[in-house]
Design a protein that fits this description.
601 residues; alpha/beta; Diaminopimelate Epimerase, Chain A, domain 1; TIM Barrel; 3 domains; eight-stranded parallel beta sheet; 27 strands; 26% helix; globular; disordered N terminus
Length: 601
């Protein structure tokens, strides 16, 4: 008898079921404590200690009660069990994204969006003009926010975009264009005027105002300098934030994400997610790292008090069957980004710069090592120790090797102060790591949270990075394989919306270190000397290791008896298909705590 797959378990989203794709049958054999939902005739990749692959799995009350052979599954089937015939499809743990910005990502889906595309100035202008034309009711004073500008990939290569590109548009409105990396913004002359930025305006701490040869602002604002204009944009209303959260959760479940860490949580983010959770709409386990600014580092106890207040208000307790919120992490930016034109990553050795303009340019070491690490070393150590004593864990952004080293040094001080404590510190990105620091990740139990999609030759890693790092250092860029060989427990984080949310492309890149087959000829080779990760290393990074990062590995990240039933069904076996095809993987079903929250058509 065919039954409605969603009758008891499906999240009420109106999504289509797998009719005709997977066969569902109910069984008449009555057994005690029979499963609610069962899968058979598949490839169940468990990510257990043996990396075993089984055939079947059963779920009762949101937890896994059986993983094994098809024959052994029969004992768990009863008259009310819904049985899915996988027909050889693959089941694996749900994806755990260890570093993303979901509300920002959801908002980007709803704003004027350049979609990370390589554009000429004329194409960029045309896209923005369309957004302006569609919102003429906002003239002349309503701000226009434009997101996902791939600044590093403007065409032709080497194009530097200034306010002139925006001033040519048919509008009087102030415009703020945000780069996809989040570390640079571009504003037009109207916005510069409103922000009162002039020749005499000093660079703010940890920020840089772009200027021409005469000292006149160009409209480019790096890192903290963006706040000079950002604070003038009216904040999103609570209802807007809720819409952004719902859009983010929809995108996440379609990717197979069942848990995530919001790596830059503000009060408004927490409030919006709490509203959605109260409405019963939370479809992934939501962890939040509260942003702490460098200026706050001078008073660790004040930081602790703020974190405790937010935890008491929003943390919903231990991980359980129903997805909920935790507020147990602190986010620190130690530097910016290593790519040009920002060059705001903190480096041990100087960036290379051209001695002259093309075609006479000779690249050689400069005096520029990027900014000082945003938290002074003594303040960083004191802050990590204070928040750890209060039961919080640090999640640090470090792009350059000097920022990575000072982050590791701070963790070393923490380990010395609190030996034996199970404190799980993540350092995100780690795009350049000095080889002397590779083994320190394992020694200090620091988790490198890497964005695999950056581990390929592309405009941001070639045109805006290769010459600036120098030939020897460039060979070591994006060191996932080096860190894995040194014993580091690598976790994955998409950093969405810095990039489009595509977990399966990221996994493919992490394994192959290559771009998509349609990439331009200059970007088709492997990136650097790093060998990359094996399939199982990459899959473990985005499941069990990210669960470990979030103190959730005893409950999620692998498919084992007693664990929460967070799993996904895929349209192909990613352990066996050619590596390049992993990027084309589609999620057929996403299950969180035994409840189906997404089904493909």
């Amino acid at each position: 008898m065919r039954i409605n797959f969603r009758a008891r378990h499906a999240f009420t989203l109106g999504c289509a079921c797998w009719m005709g794709s997977l066969t569902l049958v109910s069984h008449d054999a009555a057994v005690a404590a029979s499963a609610d939902l069962a899968y058979r005739n598949g490839h169940v990749y468990t990510v257990d200690a043996k990396d075993s692959v089984q055939q079947a799995l059963a779920i009762l009350n949101g937890r896994i009660v059986y993983v094994g052979s098809d024959v052994g599954l029969d004992a768990y089937l009863g008259p009310r069990t819904q049985v899915v015939d996988l027909r050889g499809r693959m089941v694996m743990p749900g994806l755990v994204d260890g570093h993303m910005h979901p509300m920002m990502g959801g908002a980007s889906l709803l704003k004027c969006n350049l979609h990370y595309e390589r554009l000429t100035i004329e194409q960029m202008q045309a896209r923005i003009q369309t957004c302006l034309d569609q919102s003429r009711d906002r003239e002349p004073d309503g701000w226009l926010e434009v997101v996902n500008w791939f600044q590093e990939a403007m065409l032709p290569p080497g194009t530097v975009t200034t306010r002139a590109a925006l001033d040519a548009l048919k509008t009087r409105r102030p415009i703020f264009v945000r780069s996809s990396f989040g570390h640079t913004g571009l504003i037009n002359s109207r916005a510069i005027q409103l922000a009162e930025i002039g020749k005499g305006t000093a660079d703010p701490p940890h920020g840089h105002i772009g200027r021409d040869s005469a000292g006149v602002p160009t409209g480019l604002l790096d890192d903290a300098a963006q706040r000079l204009a950002d604070h003038l944009i009216p904040p999103a209303l609570p209802a807007d934030n809720v819409r952004s959260v719902k859009a983010a959760l929809e995108a996440a479940r379609q990717q197979g994400i069942t848990s995530f860490l919001d790596a830059k949580a503000a009060d408004a983010t927490l409030a919006a997610f709490a509203t959605v959770a109260h409405q019963g709409g939370l479809t992934a386990r939501a962890h939040f790292a509260v942003l702490v600014e460098p200026a706050e580092g001078a008073d660790p106890q004040k930081v602790v008090s703020r974190l405790i207040t937010l935890r008491q208000r929003y943390d919903q307790g231990p991980v359980a069957v129903r997805p909920a919120m935790t507020v147990r992490n602190m986010k620190l930016f130690l530097d910016g980004v290593i790519s040009a034109p920002a060059l705001s990553g903190a480096m041990l050795e100087p960036y290379w710069l051209p001695s002259d303009t093309a075609p006479n340019a000779v690249w050689q070491p400069s005096q520029n090592r990027g900014p000082a690490v945003y938290f002074a070393a003594p303040a960083l150590k004191a802050l990590l120790i204070a928040v750890s004593r209060a039961g919080f864990e640090a999640h640090m952004h470090a792009d350059g090797d000097r920022a990575v080293r000072e982050g590791l040094d701070a963790v070393a001080a923490l380990r010395s102060e609190l030996p034996g404590h199970d404190i799980r510190i993540g350092i995100a990105h780690d795009e350049i790591v000095d080889p002397a620091d590779f083994p320190r990740f394992k020694q200090l139990n620091v988790i490198p949270v890497l964005s695999f999609q950056w581990e390929k030759r592309a405009p941001d890693t070639v045109d805006n990075l290769e010459q600036y790092l120098g030939p020897d250092r460039y060979k070591l860029v994006e060191p996932a394989g080096f860190l894995a060989d040194a014993g580091a427990r690598i976790a994955y984080g998409s950093d969405w919306p810095v990039d489009t949310l595509d977990e399966w492309l990221a996994l493919k890149v992490g394994i192959t270190r290559t771009d998509v087959p349609t990439a331009a000829a200059a970007y088709r080779e492997r990136l650097g000397k790093d060998k990359g990760l094996s399939r199982r290393q990459a899959l473990r990074a985005i499941t069990l290791n990210s669960s470990y990062e979030l103190h959730q590995d005893t409950e999620t990240g692998s498919l084992e008896t007693g664990k929460l039933a967070d799993l996904i069904v895929l349209d192909r076996n990613v352990l066996e298909i050619p590596e390049d095809q992993i990027a084309n993987t589609k999620v057929m079903q996403t299950v969180v705590g035994g409840r189906i929250v997404y089904s493909a058509d």
